[in-house]
User: Which sequence fits this backbone?
């Protein structure tokens, strides 16, 4: 009796697809964004001196007794342009075959605002704005959390 010695391509293809899915899922991770999202809990208890050494001078600060509120801001504006070529309507039938650009601009602003509450010289609470971009939060806290 002769056995089939041909490789089973269905198994090899399935393993290849599984490996590709694992690699693609892992490549989507952004370590800077993940670190920034971990910072609000990891930085609790840090001293004001250590905070200023790693994050720099805040954009705003308010003191009230033994409580101090520090705010750090990072913002980025992106402008995208979309160019479509359309027939020139001003030339009428003479303009057939003549095209003009129709340019549309899209402006998007991303921001991160980190609000840090200090009590007795130590971080008691840290929050980001609700519609934040975690990648922009990284420059604020990146040197503070490892």
Assistant:
């Amino acid at each position: 009796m002769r056995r089939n010695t041909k490789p089973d391509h269905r198994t090899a293809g399935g393993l290849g697809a599984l490996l590709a899915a694992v690699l693609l899922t892992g490549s989507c991770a952004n370590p800077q964004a993940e670190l920034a999202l971990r910072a609000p809990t990891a930085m609790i208890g840090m001293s004001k001196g250590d905070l200023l050494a790693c994050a720099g001078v805040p954009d705003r600060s308010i003191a009230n007794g033994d409580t101090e509120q520090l705010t750090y801001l990072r913002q980025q504006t992106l402008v995208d342009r979309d160019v479509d070529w359309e027939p020139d309507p001003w030339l009428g039938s003479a303009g057939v075959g003549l095209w003009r650009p129709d340019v549309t601009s899209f402006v998007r602003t991303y921001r991160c605002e980190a609000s840090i509450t200090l009590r007795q010289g130590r971080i008691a609470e840290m929050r980001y704005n609700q519609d934040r971009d975690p990648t922009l939060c990284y420059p604020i806290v990146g040197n503070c959390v490892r």
The two ends are 63 Å apart (CA to CA). Residues 9-27 form the longest helix (19 residues). The chain is about 30% helix and 35% strand.
